[in-house]
Amino acid sequence: xxxxxxxxxxxxxxxxxxxxxxxxxxxxxxxxxxxxxxxxxxxxxxxxxxxxxxxxxxxxxxxxxxxxxxxxxxxxxxxxxxxxxxxxxxxxxxxxxxxxxxxxxxxxxxxxxxxxxxxxxxxxxxxxxxxxxxxxxxxxxxxxxxxxxxxxxxxxxxxxxxxxxxxxxxxxxxxxxxxxxxxxxxxxxxxxxxxxxxxxxxxxxxxx
Length: 208
Hints:
The longest helix has 17 residues, at 40-56. The protein is of the alpha/beta class. The protein contains eight helices and seven strands. The strands form two sheets. Strands 4-3-5-6-7 form a five-stranded mixed β-sheet. A two-stranded antiparallel sheet has the order 1-2. Helix content is 42%, strand content 13%. Helix 4 (91-100) crosses helix 7 (188-196). The protein has helices spanning 8-17, 25-37, 40-56, 91-100, 127-136, 150-163, 188-196, 203-206, and strands at residues 58-59, 66-67, 81-88, 105-109, 141-144, 169-172, 199-200.
């Protein structure tokens, strides 16, 4: 294959940068050339921060949020309400809820949503560890805080069925989050109100 650029080093940098989501080769080239215009230390610091990120970040053994320790700062915070667990799709959703300042419980990150079309089944997600957590810990309420999409609703229902007759209150976000919307794109005020005004998940069946 013919080399696109005169420099192999530039070619390699553009190829690596273009692997990032939302970054095409033109944008990757612009970023690479920008880095070349900066002082050498800027590039070194950027490279080192990425290396540190990959080597230093792991996942919380309890909630599966990103962490630098076995337990993330939220799970290890003695001031959090350990009786309430908010179930979210991704780490980004944890950040979204934390920015609202409306929630002081714990989280459980599934790592995705059930999507048969994409070949993602329940076993590919952290659902079993959620059920085990409810059985093991003194959890009084599970908040299903997933996106109001078909995949989110499917995952909500699956978790609801898996929890079965366990003595735990199962709630979901109030419908301030529009149908079809993803949590990360919902504004903080709406997200906070939806969390505070959450409703029993079982009630959604009686309205249908």
